Amino acid sequence: FENTTHHFDKVIAQPYFRQALQHLIDQQGYIRSRGVYNGAASPNYTTAGNGSPYPPAFGDRAPYPYDPAAAKNLLTGHGWKVEPGGTTSCRHPGTGAGQCGVGIPLGQTVDFTLASANTPAYVAARDTAFASEAKKLGLKVTLVSKSLNYLYTNYGNSFAPANKNKWAAQDYGPLYLAAGYPSSNTVFNTGGSFNLGGYRDAEADKLIDASTFGADSGALSAEVSRLGKDLPVLYFPTPHTLVVWKKSLSGPPSSFSSLLSFLYTPELWYFHN
C-alpha cells in the first residue's frame, strides 16, 4: 500500500479495486489445474483458513468469488473505462459516487509489478494465470521472478522501507499464521513487524487488539470477517502439505501432527535405534 509507482498506492487503497482483483482469482480452477495444484489444495478466503474453528461471519461462501464480469462492473461503476486486452484508464476522477477515488488522476492506468517466488512451481503458475485474467480487463501486471530469500530480504516495508517503490505486490507462497489461534497480530495491524505492504485500517487494528489481548471468544471471528472483506491481501488456495520424518525419530505424537501447521517442537524429540 506504499508503492507510489504509477500511483499504485492510491489505486490499491480503494476497496472496490482490491475486490475487483480478488474476483479475478479462479481458486477452483487453480486447484483443478494440473499446471498449478493438480487437486492438492483447498479454497481459502480468510486469514484463518478453510475449516477454522474461528469462522468468518460470511461462512464458507466466498465474499468475492471468481467473477470477471463482477470485476469489470466494479471498475466501470467507479469511473474507469475498461479496455479488454488494451489499457484501462480512469475517466471520472474524484471522490464522489461513480468516481475513481482519492488521488487517482484523469487518465490513470493500472500498471504494477508482482514479485513471484521462483519456488515452489505453483506460485509462478498461479501468478501467471492471475496476470492473464487482469490483462483481459486492461490491467497490466508484470511478473518478476525472485528467490524466496531475496523477497524476505528486500521486499518488506516494515524492514526494507527504502525499497517500497521497487515492488507493488509479491507472492512467496502461503503465509501460515498460528494454527491453534490464527490472529493476524504483527501481520496486518498498523506497524506490525510482518506487515510487509504497509496495510493500515483502524477497524482491523481494533479487532486484532481485541483478539490478541481480550477475553471475548468471538473476537477472532470478528477479526477474520473484517480481513476477509477488506482484503489486506489477495486470497489464493492453500496448498496441501506433506511432512515426513525418519522412523528412528520419536516423540509425542502431537508434536509431529503440529508439523502440518508448521509448528516445530524439536525439543520434545529424541532418536532411538
Please tell me about this protein's structure.
With 273 residues, the chain is of the alpha/beta class. It folds into two domains: 5-183 and 231-240, Dipeptide-binding Protein, Domain 3 (Dipeptide-binding Protein, domain 3, Roll); 241-273, no CATH class. Helices cover 29% and strands 11% of the residues. It has helices spanning 8-12, 15-22, 27-32, 68-76, 121-136, 148-154, 202-213, 219-230, 253-257, and strands spanning 41-42, 80-81, 89-90, 111-117, 140-146, 169-171, 238-239, 249-250, 270-271. A three-stranded parallel beta sheet has the order 5-4-6. It has a two-stranded antiparallel sheet with strand order 1-7. Strand 2 (80-81) and strand 3 (89-90) form a beta hairpin. Helix 2 (15-22) runs antiparallel to helix 4 (68-76) and helix 7 runs antiparallel to helix 8. The longest helix has 16 residues, at 121-136. The termini are far apart.
Brief summary of the model shown:
This protein has helices at 8-12, 15-22, 27-32, 68-76, 121-136, 148-154, 202-213, 219-230, 253-257, and strands spanning 41-42, 80-81, 89-90, 111-117, 140-146, 169-171, 238-239, 249-250, 270-271. The protein contains nine helices and nine strands. The protein has two domains: 5-183 and 231-240, Dipeptide-binding Protein, domain 3 (Roll), CATH 3.10.105; 241-273, no CATH class.
List keywords for this structure.
273 residues, alpha/beta, Dipeptide-binding Protein, domain 3, 2 domains, three-stranded parallel sheet, two-stranded antiparallel ribbon, 9 helices, 9 strands
